[in-house]
From TrEMBL, chains A, B:
Protein name: Acetate--CoA ligase family protein
Organism: Natronosporangium hydrolyticum
SUPFAM superfamilies xref list: Glutathione synthetase ATP-binding domain-like, NAD(P)-binding Rossmann-fold domains, Succinyl-CoA synthetase domains
Keywords attached to this entry: ATP-binding, Ligase, Nucleotide-binding
Domain ATP-grasp: 485-521
Claim: ATP-binding is one of the keywords in the record: yes
Family: In the N-terminal section; belongs to the acetate CoA ligase alpha subunit family.
Gene3D superfamilies in the record: ATP-grasp fold, A domain, ATP-grasp fold, B domain, NAD(P)-binding Rossmann-like Domain, Succinyl-CoA synthetase domains
GO molecular function: ATP binding; ligase activity; metal ion binding
High-level lineage: Bacteria, Bacillati, Actinomycetota, Actinomycetes, Micromonosporales
Length: 692, 692
């Protein structure tokens, strides 16, 4: 379908400005080497080619049908395509599910027709597709720069944005594109795999507002990310954004934090800004993954400082510490005024000889302490800035850098005279090295390169299909805390001593067995938030346990007269201090069960210090989730406090995930707080919801 | 000095590539209408002008000397300038304080010479200055686009960056520039005032790594910001950045958070990214301050969504809710496929008639519910994208938008076909409307416009000069908590009941007077962190107070055998829960006493939830500082908890600032925690440090 040896253009037209005219013309202009068949109900000839009334009337094999006819005609056209043996169709018409119920009906009819007749469908409401090495451009855009990027987008305008950005940047371009449109048949999972399999795609660059098949998409991203970089911009991050997303594609944008975390875990580099998507994709397409130690070579202190600031701001990169030998060589090369500690500031030493800048870059690239090098300053502009006679030397320096660039260590270039403004940088562009104009975007690219190495170094995540519990929220039944503890205990989770008492006498006996002050918590299927109704007593001596039990149940009865009271749960008071955490699983409409780890206690929503990942979560992943938390500093032992037992916490996180996966009826499960202590972790409260 | 009617170029040269050659040539090329006097020890003629051996040999009035001779000659040249009655000198030579002790000596000599001879000095180590409307360009850069921006920079390369950015953006440019260099004489305060006074400067755009005279700089910013926008990028935000900043100008970068907060409080718009500096400056120069309600007009759902996301991400803007009448008119104009809720997505309605886009923009601009309008999409590219015959209609639409732009309500334009790529946008550029390429940067500009309105609406802050305590940290003496409380009480701060006990009997009596369980805290000039040494007892009944006193002092004696023990402070146990805050003042090397308000308790450093501002802090400013905190939600009453008594907290904040200002010997003062309760605020602990 995407490498067709014959294309029918349904709705081909002699009228300039129509998509069906543009598609035929572009195929002819680009020299598409296989047959192009215009299809038009009445015209005998379109743009000089013989036209056919239907696809089946062509009478020769057709691989791909580009369909530019109105929405209502689509089911019939697809049926006709199927009769003609067409493999795939691209439907650009709008007026389907994105517009409401009537459109959704047309779309359902079209999908049924495609399925019945064995035709795969891209769209409808797609901006089209292109495959430039095969001279196929069906997006209606001329002058697309060619290069290693494969693009998937839920917005045609976003494709325009990245094409414009590639023009500005120079040194990069595109090989393939697919507009997902309404994802009626082919969607993100298939299209990501398609670009993942394409050898002419060096990196996948995508824009998504929502995913219809979240877990399949994660699996496709992970498959692809093992082989090549996947860079995604997620639209609809805000509520307002989400509203627009709905009216755009009919897809419901999932919760933004979950989506970002899920895509990141799957191996995608998720960019937060529209203006980062193309540069980060280009950098990842051009360079191998590399470490976080960055050397900065600047020809001015201001640029050196701003780059160092941006590096510190990423939290993922750090300034490399070049070897003493490198610094000595830099000193000899650049003279006494230069700063040869990283960031290196040549301080005018290259003003009269730009070649020295390339030599200095080579010294840094050769240093084993350096993972990546960022050049920042006037590169490409010495002749314009100082003396026109420097142009030849600049061109040579650019050539040297381009050759080094091929050698493999990332060399990111940021200049006041970027791509289009400096002809002497042509060798760098030819080597696929974009010359960027923003310090911040350049550093963002280096961060992506380092993040990719980190992701590749970890074991690939798995995203098995999971049955969706799909119960309405009001159809959920809470489990009592003892029941939750039993569930955990049955799965081998150490939950500590506890007793369920149903009478004052049982409470007294249980407290005696627990030997020391205890906590009493009401047990009732009707009480989820126990402390809100006075359902918790702390520090009760065994001698007082019977009375405390009676008081507790009386108090809860007064607060919730309708509550059925099972009894009370008794646990020993915790003596050892620790860090309060939350560990929980909830259902996401897009990605299924998602595990959350975070700062726990009563202020969870306020702190919003959480890591999330769709299940399953492995031990190394759980460890990484903890590392990303703000409370990670507390867990490591803050201000002289002992470090928490991270392996116990990690084991608990993994076990919580496994319990939920093993019990599809458990829709939500939350331990909060969990006390992460120097030895072990204690569950202080637990709740769960099940579907009946 | 900056509007000179005669310029001497000292170190003028016939050698192409030298600064002294370039300066003379540029003045001649630009048609500077007043005399230019080359000064050279031996040459009789430079670039066709008669040359003089010294400035005093010129024998005619000279207002400005541009000095391009080496470092060692500077004192003598300045003395000669003084003898000739020169008002100001610009010294571009390097090799002064930025290079070390020897350079610092040269610089001190130069400053002394300038002062002795009545010459104001810009530099040394400055990149120069320009004043384009007067045809004076002494930075050695040709082709600077002209426009309303005045630039101050501690880095010459940053000037190159903003010039390049202005070229890319179109529609903006520069009138004046001053490179601060080593700030040996003229520095940020004078140069900000200079640009503030200049009528041809519409906005001040600056880059600073450190400030020598922080409070004077704040005062100059506030003076200027009342009249025109001030936009600053602060370099040296990271430790590594700070290291480079030191080697660059010899200035020590102050603590990053304090600097950013201080500049913001003074009225500057502080940008965090290098690539935001020029666009934000251009937007603020072009548009009046306006409110936060933004209407988005997009010609594609993807761009609409991304813009809405970026707006939500600022935290300072919100999507406007256009009036029903506006939506009806948009519906009639754009047809049924368009989304007429904000963001407005024309959804193809303008593809064949770009004029409709301008009409839709006019409808939104006319709506009283809309403070700012962002256009995003293909503006300027319809002819390129769809049909070359649309160019004329696009040009007209651009003209209409340009005319509306003059009317005053901010109209920010972001296009896939920005400034340089689209000739049809020339009318917008001519009206001073930059067409940006980044959605994120465009939204950042709107946020700056809204922030300026907010700042202008508040009373102007005052930055009186303050004597610096300037004591070394090890020369500070701690005050005991009772002494701190007396200090606060003397200033009229309600500090609640408390008693100092010096014997067990006094403790018993004090506890009886306080009538209820009390807290006992050791009082010792040698113990600052009381709980770390077991110096705190909580919930002591009056009957137990004598014994608790003895145990407390014995415990502290064991922990700190050398501590002199004064006794114990008794306070009532606090019954009413509240939100823990920190209120403190510490000295900043650049800005003097800085007040900090934040989330309090033991995890202050971990949470880093703080607002800071140099003193003085007024009540409205204190209120705004609280509003910016993460714990603001808690203070407002979170999850059913009662709201805190904000006016009590505000009064306490203001009082703490006043106490420090009234007692210059009090270098640091910290109340932590302060419990912000539903009625009032209780100081739970307090400490202070004084110089003797």
């Amino acid at each position: 379908m995407f490498d067709p040896h014959a294309i029918a253009v349904v709705g081909a037209s002699n009228h300039h400005g129509k998509r069906g005219n543009h598609a035929v013309r572009q195929l002819l202009d680009d020299g598409y080497p296989h047959p192009v068949y215009p299809v038009h109900p009445r015209e005998a000839c379109v743009l000089g080619l013989p036209a056919y009334p239907t696809v089946s009337a062509i009478g020769a094999p057709v691989d791909l049908a580009f369909i530019a006819t109105p929405a209502r005609s689509l089911p019939a056209v697809l049926a006709d395509c199927g009769a003609a043996g067409v493999a795939g169709a691209v439907a650009v018409a709008v007026g389907f599910a994105e517009t409401g119920d009537e459109g959704a009906r047309y779309q359902a009819e079209a999908v049924a027709a495609a399925r019945d007749h064995g035709v795969r469908l891209l769209g409808p409401n797609t901006s089209g597709c292109f495959h430039l090495p095969a001279r196929i451009n069906l997006v209606g855009l001329p002058e697309v720069p060619t290069g290693p990027l494969g693009v998937i987008s839920q917005s045609g305008n976003l494709l325009l944005s990245v094409i414009a950005a590639a023009h500005r940047l120079g040194g990069t371009g595109f090989s393939r594109y697919a507009g997902v449109g309404n994802e009626a048949d082919l969607g993100f999972p298939e299209l990501i795999d398609y670009l993942g399999d394409a050898t002419d795609v060096g990196a996948v660059c995508g824009y998504a507002e929502g995913f219809r098949r979240g877990r399949e998409t994660l699996a496709a991203i992970t498959r692809t990310a093992r082989r090549k970089p996947v860079v995604l911009l997620k639209g609809g991050q805000s509520d307002a954004g989400g509203r627009s997303a709905r009216s755009h594609t009919g897809a419901v944008a999932g919760d933004a934090t979950v989506a970002t975390a899920a895509l990141h875990a799957a191996g995608a580099e998720v960019v937060a800004r529209e203006d980062e998507l193309l540069p980060v994709s280009a950098a990842l397409a051009n360079w191998p993954a590399a470490g976080p130690r960055v050397a900065v070579l600047a020809d001015g202190g201001g640029h050196a400082t701003m780059t160092a600031d941006a590096i510190a701001g990423t939290g993922r990169l750090r300034l490399a510490e070049p070897a003493e030998a490198t610094r000595s060589r830099l000193r000899r090369l650049l003279g006494p005024a230069a700063a040869v500690h990283n960031p290196v500031d040549v301080a005018g030493a290259t003003d009269t000889d730009p070649a020295r800048f390339a030599e200095a870059a080579e010294l840094l690239l050769a240093d084993a302490e350096v993972d990546q090098v960022i050049l920042v300053g006037l590169i490409g502009g010495y002749a314009q800035r100082f003396d026109p006679t420097l142009a030849a030397a600049e061109q040579r320096a650019s050539q040297v850098l381009a050759e080094r660039a091929v050698a493999g260590k990332p060399l990111l270039v940021c200049s006041v005279y970027p791509g289009e403004r400096s002809p002497v940088l042509a060798p760098l562009a030819a080597a696929g090295v974009p010359v960027m104009s923003s310090v911040d975007v350049t550093v963002r690219c280096a961060a992506a390169i380092a993040a990719r190495q980190q992701w590749l170094a970890a074991a690939a995540p798995q995203w098995p299909p999971l049955p969706s519990p799909a119960a309405p929220p009001d159809g959920l039944r809470p489990l009592t805390e003892p029941a939750v503890r039993e569930l955990l205990a049955a799965a081998g989770v150490p939950i500590g001593p506890h007793r369920l008492a149903r009478t004052p006498a049982e409470a007294a006996q249980a407290a005696g067995e627990l030997a020391g002050p205890v906590a009493l918590k009401v047990v009732s299927p009707d009480v989820v938030h126990k402390s809100d109704v006075g359902g918790v007593r702390l520090g009760v001596a065994p001698a007082d346990a019977a009375v405390a039990y009676q008081e507790l149940l009386a108090q809860v009865s007064r607060a919730v007269p309708t509550a059925a009271l099972t009894g009370a749960l008794l646990t020993p008071m915790v003596e050892t201090p620790g860090v309060e955490l939350l560990i929980g699983v909830a259902q996401d409409a897009t990605f299924g069960p998602v595990l959350t780890v975070g700062a726990g206690g009563t202020l969870v929503e306020l702190l919003r210090d959480v890591s999330v990942q769709p299940l399953p979560v492995t031990a190394p992943q759980a460890r990484a989730m903890l590392d990303r938390l703000g409370v990670a500093r507390l867990l490591r032992g803050y201000r002289g406090a002992p470090a928490a037992d991270l392996s116990a916490v990690v084991a608990l996180i993994v076990a919580v995930g496994e319990v939920v996966l093993a019990h599809p009826d458990v829709v939500e499960l939350e331990l909060n707080p969990v006390l992460a202590q120097p030895a072990g972790a204690t569950i202080l409260d637990a709740r769960a919801f099940v579907v009946d």
